[in-house]
């Protein structure tokens, strides 16, 4: 049984669990939207004194911060107790395309070229991660949500704005993948 | 649970996100597609039967503000960051737990990015 769990989970199992998480949150009177935490953290850090957008009762969002802590713990548990350590099995085409960009085939879950500590302490490596994070944080609040809030929760409720946001996610994602990444890497 | 499923489905991997944006695997579309399909059915059932949450309050869904500009521009900026760092906000912290400490930098800058949005919000088209 443990060996079975240690393999990567197939897509429909994962999708069903994500959906179940969303409904659990709904039935506990909350909603599934992760990037709201970024705003909450700004508020907890005292951002409300300077910017009105962060001046709200962040204590009502503590449940979501607990969810965040849980996600960190979940990552730890998955790595240390539920993993067989095999690299991510992506398609041969992707491996071939990425090798042209100087990214070698997966040996774990993330490419060393981008996420190793050696890379982090180079200027380019640092800037890639910093700008990536900056755009995710800025864009998710501008669009009013991230993948969980729009693509999962919003589309489940058939909300038109979420569809536009998801289209935006792909416009940006494709632009980065096919135009900018070849220049950056 | 969210952390475990993100890690075990490999949805937190930069490689998987690249594969998705290159349309070279069904994996990520399968995950999101399954979650949304079940989500649509579930939300429809909640509305049809007016289900209540655990505290007995009726479950309501708040429609998002009507706008196209903010979702399209914001979404595009988000997508640029997603494809570059290979992580949206949730998977960032899952990666930190998994031991990819570089993601702490990504997450800190995501917080800075959110702060920046809050600071210049009134000057942006919505």
Question: What does the model show?
Answer:
The complex is a heterodimer of chains A (185) and B (126). Chain A is built from 10 helices and no strands. Chain A is mainly alpha-helical. Chain A folds into 2 domains: 11-86, no CATH class; 98-185, no CATH class. The longest helix of chain A has 25 residues, at 160-184. Chain A starts with a helix and ends with a helix. With 126 residues, chain B is mostly helical. Chain B is 66% helix and 0% strand. In chain B, helix 1 crosses helix 5. Chain B is globular, with a radius of gyration of 18 Å.
Q: Layout of SSEs?
A:
The complex is a heterodimer of chains A (185) and B (126).
Chain A: H1 2-6, H2 11-27, H3 36-44, H4 62-80, H5 92-100, H6 112-115, H7 117-120, H8 123-142, H9 147-156, H10 160-184
Chain B: H1 2-8, H2 14-21, H3 27-48, H4 69-85, H5 89-98, H6 102-120
Helix pairs in contact in B: 1-5, 2-4, 5-6
Give the number of helices of chain B. Answer: 6
Largest sheet of chain B: none
Q: Calculate the mean pLDDT score of chain A and round it.
A: 93
The share of residues in helices of chain B is: 55-70%
* Gap between N and C termini of chain A: 41 Å
Q: How does the overall form of chain B come out from the CA principal axes?
A: globular
* Rg of chain B (CA only): 18 Å
Query: Helical amount among residues of chain A, as a percent range?
Result: 55-70%
Write the H/E string of chain B, N to C.
Answer: HHHHHH
Oligomer kind:
heterodimer
Poorly predicted tracts of residues of chain A: none
Number of domains of chain A: 2
| Rounded mean pLDDT score of chain B | 93
Largest interface: A-B, 113 and 104 residues
Q: How does the overall form of chain A come out from the CA principal axes?
A: globular
Compute the number of helices of chain A.
10
Termini separation of chain B: 35 Å
Strand content of chain B: under 5%
Question: Which blocks of ≥5 consecutive residues of chain B have pLDDT under 50?
Answer: none
Helical/strand content category of chain A: mainly alpha
Strand proportion of chain A: under 5%
């Amino acid at each position: 049984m443990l060996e079975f769990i240690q393999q990567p989970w197939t897509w429909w199992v994962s999708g069903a669990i994500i959906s179940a998480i969303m409904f659990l949150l709904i039935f506990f009177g909350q909603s599934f939207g992760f990037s709201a935490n970024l705003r909450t953290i700004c508020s907890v850090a005292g951002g409300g004194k300077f910017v009105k957008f962060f001046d709200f009762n962040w204590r009502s969002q503590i449940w979501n911060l607990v969810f965040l802590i849980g996600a960190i713990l979940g990552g730890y548990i998955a790595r240390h107790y539920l993993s067989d350590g095999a690299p991510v099995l992506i398609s041969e085409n992707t491996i071939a395309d990425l090798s042209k960009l100087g990214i070698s085939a997966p040996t774990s879950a993330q490419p060393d070229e981008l996420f190793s500590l050696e890379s982090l302490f180079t200027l380019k490596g640092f800037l890639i991660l910093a700008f990536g994070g900056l755009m995710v944080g800025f864009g998710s609040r501008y669009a009013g949500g991230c993948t969980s809030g729009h693509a999962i929760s919003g589309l489940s409720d058939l909300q038109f704005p979420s569809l536009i946001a998801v289209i935006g996610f792909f416009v940006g994602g494709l632009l980065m993948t096919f135009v900018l990444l070849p220049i950056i890497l | 649970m969210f952390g475990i499923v993100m890690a075990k489905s490999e949805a937190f991997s930069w490689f998987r996100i690249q594969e998705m944006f290159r349309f070279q695997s069904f994996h990520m579309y399968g995950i999101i597609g399954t979650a949304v399909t079940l989500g649509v059915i579930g939300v429809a059932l909640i509305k049809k039967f007016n289900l209540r949450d655990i505290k007995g309050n009726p479950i309501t869904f708040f429609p998002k503000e009507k706008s196209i500009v903010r979702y399209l521009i914001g979404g595009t900026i988000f997508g640029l960051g997603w494809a570059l760092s290979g992580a949206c906000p949730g998977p960032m912290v899952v990666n930190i737990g998994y031991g990819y400490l570089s993601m702490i930098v990504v997450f800190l800058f995501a917080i800075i990015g959110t702060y920046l949005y809050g600071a210049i919000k009134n000057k942006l088209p919505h």
